[in-house]
């Protein structure tokens, strides 16, 4: 089916947009009336969902139409006449996606970005990167900059702590879809794609117990994020399931700080393994153990709850979880793309949880030993 007679020349979405704009004010489309749906636009003009959504989005931006959450699209109460610009004008969203990340380091982030690009580039979306340096204030600024740039969507690897919920309200009001990766916000209803963080804490701990460890100390790079809280919950559950007492001096959500390793090793019953929340905590632990003249493994062992860090931690660890980094990016990109073309970016938000892998040193083709210099 071709575009209806009377639609002018030019890009197809502009032809559809013009034809839809001419319907406003005609019979059945008075101010406040329900407007044609995305599906009806596709059927009437024989165009793709992407074209229909873009045409409708531009009419919403120009204030001829309004969207009501959960209800649909309606003719604005005071629609701007065809050919007259709204004031102030709102530029149409382009095919750009903002990727706002807490840090740019490590192979985990690189693989995540590769997955995002694979999911979005084939559909004509461009990406630009912004880093928050794990600061809630910088994250809020980056989100507002993305909105000012009229991006079509946002992928957010959120900073630790609570970014002002008003920022997310602003994103929602503007109808820009946002997908969080790695962690969710309990106070903000958004789509999320994340690894099974509860399983990470549980399965890594269970493997350590199978290796004979019962005194396991946890060390964390972050403490104020749902990902680490879920991992701690999994860790504690594994201890309880194996009737191992939870010890406040070992099994806590403790931010890594100078001297913590030395204090742990000075306990009457010191840990036999340091279980690190991510690769950054593990890198610091290795550095401190070497400074204390200890061998890893030998004097003490280390384990990791993920491979997000400054280098590949897996060869150093007795047990470590491997994150589905590329899959996180691919699924976040695909979910965001569907939201950007649906016209209903916040309907029935989804929490997509991906399985993780856990490996042990014995199952690796090789491993590293850290030995203090004489």
Automatic annotation (TrEMBL):
DNA-binding in keyword set: yes
Q: Name one Pfam family in it.
A: Peripla_BP_1
| SMART domains cross-referenced by the UniProt entry | HTH_GNTR
- Gene3D superfamilies, alphabetized: 3.40.50.2300, Winged helix-like DNA-binding domain superfamily/Winged helix DNA-binding domain
User: SUPFAM superfamilies of this UniProt entry?
Assistant: Periplasmic binding protein-like I (SSF53822), Winged helix' DNA-binding domain (SSF46785)
Q: Which domain of life is it from?
A: Bacteria
Cite the entry's keywords alphabetically. Answer: DNA-binding, Transcription, Transcription regulation
Q: What is this protein called?
A: Substrate-binding domain-containing protein
Sequence ranges assigned to domain HTH gntR-type in this UniProt record: 10-78
The reply on keyword Transcription is: yes
Q: Which organism is it from?
A: Tenggerimyces flavus
């Amino acid at each position: 089916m071709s575009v209806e007679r009377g639609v002018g020349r030019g890009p197809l979405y502009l032809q559809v947009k013009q034809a839809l704009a001419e319907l406003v004010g005609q019979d059945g489309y008075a101010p406040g009336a329900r407007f044609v749906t995305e599906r009806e636009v596709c059927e009437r003009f024989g165009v793709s969902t992407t074209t229909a959504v873009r045409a409708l989005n531009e009419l919403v931006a120009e204030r001829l139409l309004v969207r009501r959450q959960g209800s649909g699209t309606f003719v604005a109460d005071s629609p701007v006449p065809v050919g007259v610009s709204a004031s102030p004008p709102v530029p149409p969203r382009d095919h750009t996606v903002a990727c706002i990340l807490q840090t740019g380091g490590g192979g985990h982030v690189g693989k995540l970005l590769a997955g995002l690009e694979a999911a979005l580039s084939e559909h004509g979306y461009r990406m630009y990167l912004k880093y928050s340096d794990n600061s809630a204030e910088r994250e809020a600024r980056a989100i507002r900059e993305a909105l000012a740039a009229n991006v079509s969507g946002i992928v957010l690897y959120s900073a630790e702590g609570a970014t002002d919920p008003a920022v997310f309200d602003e994103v929602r009001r503007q109808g820009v879809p946002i997908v969080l990766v790695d962690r969710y916000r309990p106070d903000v209803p958004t789509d999320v794609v994340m690894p099974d963080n509860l399983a990470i804490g549980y399965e890594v701990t269970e493997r350590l117990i199978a290796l004979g460890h019962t005194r396991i100390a946890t060390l964390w790079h972050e403490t104020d994020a749902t990902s680490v809280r879920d991992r701690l919950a999994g860790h504690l559950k594994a201890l309880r399931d194996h009737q191992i007492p939870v010890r406040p001096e070992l099994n806590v959500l403790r931010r890594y700080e100078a001297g913590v390793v030395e204090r742990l090793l000075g306990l009457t019953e010191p840990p036999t393994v340091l279980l690190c929340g991510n690769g950054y905590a593990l890198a610091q632990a290795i550095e401190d153990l070497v400074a204390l003249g200890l061998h890893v493994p030998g004097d003490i062992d280390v384990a990791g709850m993920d491979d997000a860090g400054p280098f590949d931690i897996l060869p150093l660890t007795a047990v470590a979880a491997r994150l589905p980094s590329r899959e996180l990016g691919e699924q976040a990109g695909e979910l965001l793309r569907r939201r950007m073309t649906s016209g209903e970016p916040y309907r029935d938000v989804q929490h997509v949880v991906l399985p993780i892998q856990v490996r042990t040193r014995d199952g690796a083709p090789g491993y590293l030993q850290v030995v203090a210099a004489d």
